[in-house]
Amino acid sequence: MDERHGAATFRDNPLTLIGPELKVGDHAPGFDVVDKTLSPVSLEATSGAVRIFSVVPSLDTPVCDIQTKRFNEEAGELPDVKMYTISMDLPFAQARWCSSFGIDNLTMLSDHRTGSFGTAYGTLIKEWRMESRAIFVVDKHNTVQHVEYVKDVAEQPDYEAALNKARELAK
Question: Domain 3-170, what fold?
Fold first, then answer.
């Protein structure tokens, strides 16, 4: 398994990401996660649509909160794009958080069981066993069309770059 030391940081402290660094044009790797009702979800189950996978360390942090609320808001304006937020938070915590903030335009996915999304997409932080902040836009044919690994996990991603790519693909 690839280990990319220093691929991410937290307030200038280097972190190691496990898994490959995906590039535009790569075939989106498979994964096995669960939704907030504990139902299994795989890449294949999401196929057939343009997808944004918004990856966050934990919903209970300020930047993850902002990121997830932003994509939930945008999802309401992009009916042809499926949006997913992925974290290591337990499905019960995800459900509670969504209920508290009225998040219902995107799908929450938990990678807590196996970390298969994190290791397949290169977002698993070795030191914390949490996800690093990243965004992937995947087309209807499971090809990665946009990738952003946010260098410092305490920083926000470039929302517009991901959203513009998703809009372009959904036309």
Answer: Glutaredoxin (3.40.30)
